[in-house]
Design goal:
104 residues; mainly alpha; CipC protein; DUF3759
Length: 104
């Protein structure tokens, strides 16, 4: 897995999905989204194999991070600007990890 269970992303994921009602920063949500996307990406490649190329892998990650941020925005409440900031930061964080680990 790209992120370990004691990584910043894993801790953020636990905090964001743990049912807390405190206001969450877009940075915290981005870290959680990148962790969630990494888990979903790994499940996807186990089931379907690796994407054909880097561009397809990045496109898949964009969808995975965006879906998580959208879900959190709806359940926890976020304004549109914070939501877009979180999506962008999450995508960049997940993309960087993807490239670092060569998972495409």
């Amino acid at each position: 897995m790209w992120f370990t269970h004691d990584s910043e992303e894993s801790k953020a994921h636990s905090e964001v999905t743990g049912g807390h009602s405190a206001k969450l920063s877009h940075e915290l949500i981005a870290a959680a989204a990148s962790y969630e996307a990494a888990k979903a990406y790994e499940k996807h490649i186990q089931k379907n194999g690796k994407p054909a190329n880097h561009a397809k892998a990045v496109e898949l990650l964009a969808g995975l991070t965006g879906a998580f941020v959208d879900r959190i925005a709806e359940t926890k409440g976020m304004d549109a600007l914070e939501k877009e900031k979180a999506k962008h930061a999450a995508h960049e964080r997940a993309k960087s990890s993807l490239e670092k680990h060569g998972e495409f």
